[in-house]
Amino acid sequence: MSPESEVLEFALDAEWIELPSPEATDDDTWVEAALDSFELDGPVRGMLAEGLRGMLDLARKLSPGSRRSFALVAHPELGRVDALLSFRLARVTASGYADYLRAAQGFVPAGGGEALNRRVEELALPAGPAVLSTDILVPPADEPLAPPATERVFLGVFPRGWGAIAEFTLVTEDLAAFENAADYVVALASGGTPVRIGEDIA
Fold this sequence. Notes:
alpha+beta, Protein Transport Mog1p, Chain A, seven-stranded antiparallel sheet
């Protein structure tokens, strides 16, 4: 198996639904089709529609590149979108790994927020070296209508001999959505079977 295919071929559970590409413009049609697939109506349908539109907006704010994004809808009957998972490919220069590691190590939240439990780790994955960074981003306490704390995982994989980065981004405002969000992303990128919630705490 080639290094790139080890990174590019990953499987997600059915609770993940793929979002349209960032260039797509007809959000309403896609949202309505997604809602119809869940056979929802009433207030719950409106709540889920709002959550899906929020994920579309968030995906468009991520770094450019060849990208696929997915929304986690574990319990559609609750009208809630639990997380965003996005994967992108981008060409890098010879210093790409060092630059990515330096940026991760030097990250400072903009606007006075705080990155709790910030961790940056170098990994050796089947496809090549990788940089894992995780934190819980907390907005400034005095910010009006501040969003809730957000758990974030970034995994940049640099497939050997390919001159590119394969980056996984996981974002969730539900801090209980994953037993271990970082392990989930690493397992996904390694071609394993990621476990979102263990049976003992499901």
